Amino acid sequence: MADNTYELCNEHKGIKEHLPVIEGTQGPHAVDVSKLYRDTGVLTYDPGFMSTASCESRITYIDGEAGILEYRGYPIEQLAEKATFLEVAYLLLHGDLPSSVQLREFEQIIVYHTMLNETLKNFYDGFHHDAHPMAIMVGVVGSLSAFYHDSLDVNDPHHREVSAHRLLAKMPTIAAASYKHNISEPIVYPDNNLSYCANFLNMMFSTPCEPYEVNSTAEKAVNLLFILHADHEQNASTSTVRLAGSSLANPFACIAAGIASLWGPAHGGANEAVLNMLTDIGDVSQIDKYIAKAKDKSDKFRLMGFGHRVYKNFDPRADILREVCKEVLDKLPVDDSPLFELALRLEEIALHDEYFVKRKLYPNVDFYSGIIYRALGIPNNMFTVMFALGRTVGWVAHWMEMMSDPEQKIGRPRQIYKGSPRREYIPIENR
Ligand code: CMC
Question: Ligand 1 mean position to 309 CA, how many Å?
């Protein structure tokens, strides 16, 4: 790579190419294969994108070996300790931390958009009473495109910005209304005197019949959880948003696609699965049995909240959450310490087990988040919704970055066809 090209040789195909090498500000270099097919007729093959950078981005940096996560260059540990979620949202969207005037203006813009169009409420009545809130989220967020026609021109930067603000502002309202639908309570309107996170908690837990005061420990925990989930570069749901957006689909449809992708248990659905798993394990004496199941290749069971495609040393978000979990359980009037003790013990046993050590499997962001959500009174089926609330700003930031790139193209992977060669149609009576 001395001359900043990579020599690709394939004697079988008679290919000898000098491919350009692209360097980021940090992280591994990439070989630019974008013209390989045009020049040689050969494709690259990388299922699961194990070695593929799908785009250039200036938003988030991860070093999986060193356990580093940075938003726009700022370490996650510093943002988690010092920032508010809306400050981080501004950072992700605009590239720099806001001044106090910029932050105040941004907060006012977001507050202005928190309410839903009143007819949107009718959508909730169409869902079965026990619909999973992620199913409701996919439907209601997608339906925003049927309401806000004045911000749907994806080629207009102002429209894009208004849609970004609407998404960020309305997601907590939509999420809390999904929960209220599940428990058959009236939907609570946003209270714009409250902070972003307090407003969400108020819409979740207040009722029209009695006063409700947001607990400051709960507000602080939600602020932190949203920050930790705000972005994670080209994960499955963000890549889904980018791919959907690359066809110039409207942003509400793209974010609905992102929510659908997040729902899977290998991605954001893992936080719900972790709590179900801990409840199933039930007692420290059962841990060995579940570790054995996770190691057994004939058993589909995996230790949920463990392992990550990029982090191969530790997930810095899990380290922060372990501490916060302790703090929240100490301060809130809940008795979930046995569950936390069980999680700690499970982590300790797994981290000393050769199977997990060899494969570099560590607790990820989903391992401790569920215990915190539970302590806040958030039910299991809302955990992935909480992830979606934090991640919305990341999805939107990536969509904005892609849409403002003059080189933006529709995403269109190719395939290795392994099906039948050409054959002639056989009339049904002859088959
Ligand atoms: N329990 C047991 N074995 C595991 C686990 C686990 N949680 N995770 C990976 N492995 C094994 C896997 O069987 C494979 O073993 P072998 O080499 O013998 O075939 C090896 O480790 C590598 O796993 P992989 O599936 O090839 O790795 P991946 O990078 O494709 O998958 C992952 C990453 C996160 C999907 C996977 O670790 C997993 O399924 N974890 C559990 C679900 C989870 O916690 N997901 C949340 C991810 S973090 C937040 C987010 O992205 O939403």
Answer: 7
Contact 311, 362 (CB under 8 A): yes
Atom of ligand 1 nearest to the CA of 359: 21
- 279 strand-pairing partners: none
Residue nearest to atom 47 of ligand 1 (CA): 267
Q: Whose CA is nearest to atom 2 of ligand 1?
A: 302
- β-sheet bridge partners, residue 2: none
Residue 13 pLDDT: 67
22, 23, 28, 32: CA torsion to nearest 10: 0
Q: How far is the CA of 392 from the centre of ligand 1 (A)?
A: 24
25 Cβ neighbours under 8 A, 6+ residues apart: 61
Catalytic positions: 267, 308, 366
> What is the chain's alpha carbon radius of gyration, rounded to the nearest angstrom?
23
How far out from the chain centre does Cα 188 lie? 26
User: What is the distance between the alpha carbons of residues 309 and 25, in angstroms, rounded to a whole number?
Assistant: 21
How many angstroms is it from 6 CA to the middle of ligand 1?
31
Report residue 8: phi and psi, to 5°. Answer: -105, 120
Mutate which of 357, 361, 367, 391 to test ligand 1's pocket (most atoms within 8 Å of Cβ)? 361
Put simply, whether the predicted model's pTM sits higher than 0.85 gets the answer: yes
pLDDT tens column, 145-199: 999 999 999 999 999 999 999 999 999 999 999 999 999 999 999 999 999 999 9
